[in-house]
Automatic annotation (TrEMBL):
Keyword GTP-binding listed: no
Any single Pfam family the record assigns to this protein: DUF5134
Residue ranges crossing the lipid bilayer per the database entry: 6-24, 36-55, 61-81, 106-125, 151-171
Designated name of the protein: DUF5134 domain-containing protein
Keywords attached to this entry: Membrane, Transmembrane, Transmembrane helix
Database matches in InterPro entries: DUF5134 (IPR033458)
Amino acid sequence: MVTDPLALVLLSALFALTGGWFAVQTLRPSRWPERLDHGLHLLMSLAMLTMAWTHGSSVPVWPQLVLFALSSLWFLGRALWSPGQPLWSPGRTGHAATSATEDASVAWLPWFHVVMTLAMVWMLAVEPPEGGSAHDHTAARLGLVPELTGLGLVALLLAGTALSVSAAVHARASRAPHHRPGGFDVSHTVMGVGMLAMTAPALLG
């Protein structure tokens, strides 16, 4: 649970924004893998929103752990099945990428999805018992392995968020058309920022 009022408002706005965007994308006509991709991101947004507002014990943890562990396997399969292809390439959405450069610029994206779902699993796994808050962790309480795992995930979230920002800037500056849905890069940037804001305090608290 986030106790700072300003942080709570900002995080609520972030996850409401990403949740709304992914909900719209889930409802748009597309192939079922794309709908599942967006639906899982919608569930992540809702879970993070719930985590920000409630104590860890208020919502059952094990169903969420199973859901996001399976989600990470799904995104891992997506990343390995068509390596180097963006989520809207012919093998995934039926839209051809505009160039080899665009393909290369988003080859990391499926792996960012893997990192985000693994970060969800990590946060749920280290969730404090009733009476604690999601940001009351300390390195001593977490232990060495969870702490190192969390640090690795934070580093990867930072990298993925930075790449999302770069992709958004590149898409805006480029004159070449692209087939990514409007707000695609921004939504991933916002999602990354929100997840960092929830994950990092668990290590630094």
